[in-house]
TrEMBL record:
GO terms for molecular function: glutathione dehydrogenase (ascorbate) activity; glutathione transferase activity. Signal peptide: none annotated. Residues 85-212 form the GST C-terminal domain. Residues 2-80 form the GST N-terminal domain. GO terms for cellular component: cytoplasm. InterPro entries: Glutathione-S-Trfase_C-like, Glutathione-S-Trfase_C_sf, Glutathione_S-Trfase, Glutathione_S-Trfase_N, GST_omega, GST_Omega/HSP26, Omega/Tau-like, Thioredoxin-like_sf. The keyword Transferase applies. It is an enzyme of class 2 (transferase). This is glutathione transferase. Its EC number is 2.5.1.18. The keyword Transferase applies.
Length: 231
């Protein structure tokens, strides 16, 4: 019997984060796939925000991917996915917060905006964020390995990776590529792409590009699209 149930959607990068955490932990889990375009009525009783991912573990029902992943790391401590030193744990949380509140809104706003000037504005914002990550993040924190904290794989890595797997969407719809200056991020992306947990659930561009067509033409109406328009 599965120890954890995860309510997920293959197209959702936030759910992707938690599936990676479960795989890295080696936890026995059951996936309940939710059709985000046709959510069952009962799902509202599981997910107060009507979003994925949500996990059920015993009497606990937890939502929001970053919080779920820290919960998993606390309840299933081996292998650890957060640094053991408090200062480094704080740095890990800072970068996850940066992804959630800086990088990802720019990613979505490039797609959602139909005005060319606004697309260019958010493309520059995204480029600035990537250069900041390159210079102030991975280049300083990872001097002896492939991951954000060097040889130690962490929640920072799996919190960021799902959007890089979907980078083909930005390339296809907005001609936005990872800046050439981001050498360390490119190396990180390459290392992540072949990690066993990542490879086991990886999807191709042919899967993602149609999934994001409504974002690109401005007609996306899901909760994430609504929230990103307000940011």
């Amino acid at each position: 019997m599965a120890e954890i149930e995860i309510y997920s959607a293959a197209a959702c990068p936030y759910a992707h984060r938690t599936r990676l955490a479960l795989l890295e932990k080696g936890i026995n889990f059951k996936v309940i796939e939710i059709d985000l375009n046709n959510k069952p009525d009962w799902f509202k009783n599981i997910s107060p925000y009507s979003k994925v991912p949500v996990i059920k573990h015993g009497n606990d029902c937890i939502w929001e991917s970053s919080i779920i992943n820290e919960y998993l790391d606390e309840v299933f401590p081996e292998p650890p996915l957060m640094p053991t030193i408090p200062g480094q744990r704080a740095i890990a949380r800072i970068w996850i917060d940066f992804f959630n509140n800086k990088l990802l809104p720019a990613f979505y706003k490039i797609l959602l905006n139909q005005d060319i000037a606004q697309q260019q504005h958010w493309a520059q914002e995204l480029k600035n964020h990537l250069l900041f990550m390159e210079q102030e993040g991975i280049s300083k924190l990872s001097t002896d390995g492939s991951y954000w904290f060097g040889k130690s794989f962490s929640l920072v890595d799996l919190s960021l990776y799902p959007w890089f797997e979907r980078w083909c969407v930005l390339e296809h719809y907005r001609d936005f590529f990872l800046p050439s200056e981001c050498d360390r991020l490119q190396q990180w992306w390459t290392a992540m792409s072949v990690r066993e947990s990542v490879a086991s659930i990886k999807q191709s561009p042919d899967f993602y590009i149609p999934q994001y067509s409504k974002y690109a033409n401005g007609t996306a109406s899901g909760i994430t699209a609504q929230e990103m328009r307000r940011v």
